[in-house]
């Protein structure tokens, strides 16, 4: 017998989520039918989009979300026992799948790389950054990109991809520690939006000529200040609006229409599931390649430092 522990939506959200919105339930799973597999979750996602998407759930449903899981029992030859997969099974320790919604980790995934990245940089959040920046914004080398929530899972990937493409990148985050992290990632300008005297002036100072691309994870008043500083024919990828997800008050008004009209801006909302098939697989390969390149550089730097310390100790011994 296999028992699954699942976090369910006990009560729909009003304002910020609380413990009272969830309930942990234990259920016994049935034996496998032919073509099915039993999955054991290793890592689960907890993402901002769930705050909005949970409106589609009925009270008592398991919370949605992806997981990296291991096949622990199989009656499906395509997924033998031990296979590592990404599944949309939600917040549950165990689940049964017919295999149709499962995605194997890339064959070239190295043993040294944490499989949790299949839910992050080499998964949904990385793909969101990739397609939002490259397809929706269509960035080109030499352009200036503005990213808010820049230290988050998506924002941090956006900045690094933009730098790979030769862009100047400006990022906003909500703490000094996050700002330091952005600078480590290579952001050209990073600031704490909670402590600057004027967001408008900070943005102008960071890029006096304005912004070609705005990758928006926050929405609300923040976006109303950024959008008037867009360059002509600027592109805005609306990925999220975390500043208003939990509000119980009326939403703030949108940006001035004249800015959008006379600057001839293009704004487009998107969901990453739009991209499937070959383009998705290419994006995953690109992301995995970039992650491995970064890890190699980090290992090379660490090796050089250790060798340098060894040479220094050798000189002292002499």
Automatic annotation (TrEMBL):
Gene3D superfamilies the record matches: Medium-chain alcohol dehydrogenases, catalytic domain, NAD(P)-binding Rossmann-like Domain
GO cellular component, one term: cytoplasm
EC category name: oxidoreductase
One Gene Ontology term of the molecular function aspect: 15-oxoprostaglandin 13-reductase [NAD(P)+] activity
One GO term of the biological process aspect: prostaglandin metabolic process
Keywords: Acetylation, Cytoplasm, Fatty acid metabolism, Hydroxylation, Lipid metabolism, NADP, Oxidoreductase, Phosphoprotein, Prostaglandin metabolism
Coarse class of the protein's main subcellular location: cytoplasm
Keyword NADP: yes
Catalytic activity of the protein: hexanal + NADP(+) = (E)-hex-2-enal + NADPH + H(+); 6-trans-leukotriene B4 + NADP(+) = 12-oxo-(5S)-hydroxy-(6E,8E,10E,14Z)-eicosatetraenoate + NADPH + H(+); 4-hydroxynonanal + NADP(+) = (E)-4-hydroxynon-2-enal + NADPH + H(+); 13,14-dihydro-15-oxo-prostaglandin E1 + NADP(+) = 15-oxoprostaglandin E1 + NADPH + H(+)
A Pfam family annotated for this UniProt entry: ADH_N_2
Transmembrane segments: none
Domain Enoyl reductase (ER): 20-318
Cell compartment(s), UniProt: Cytoplasm
Listed EC numbers: 1.3.1.48, 1.3.1.74
PANTHER family for the chain: PROSTAGLANDIN REDUCTASE (PTHR43205), PROSTAGLANDIN REDUCTASE 1 (PTHR43205:SF7)
Assigned protein family: Belongs to the NADP-dependent oxidoreductase L4BD family.
Subunit structure: Monomer or homodimer.
Protein's recorded name: Prostaglandin reductase 1
Gene: PTGR1
